[in-house]
């Protein structure tokens, strides 16, 4: 994303010239798609420092192309069912609606 916006303004693409100035990380993930983001989140849960290298938009082509949002809607619908079933039991859950009746 930075590359596209900088190209319009004739700003040079940032280049790492001094490796000592770059912070050390435990894990460098190539690709900021769903798998890369999931791997980064898991590494962070284990206390690791992470960087993600992505050439395009973070989220990957599937997210911006339309395949992940439909899968996310299925996952959200499954969670809603679980919450509705669990809310009939004394576990202290509260339900809320997102996007009103459209959901």
TrEMBL record:
GO biological process: 2-oxoglutarate metabolic process
GO terms for MF: dihydrolipoyl dehydrogenase (NADH) activity; flavin adenine dinucleotide binding
Organism classification: Eukaryota, Discoba, Euglenozoa, Kinetoplastea, Metakinetoplastina
Protein name as annotated: FAD binding domain/FAD dependent oxidoreductase
Record domain FAD/NAD(P)-binding: where: 26-81
Pfam families (UniProt xref): Pyr_redox_2 (PF07992)
Gene3D superfamilies named among the record's database cross-references: FAD/NAD(P)-binding domain
CC per GO annotation: mitochondrion; oxoglutarate dehydrogenase complex
Taxonomic superkingdom: Eukaryota
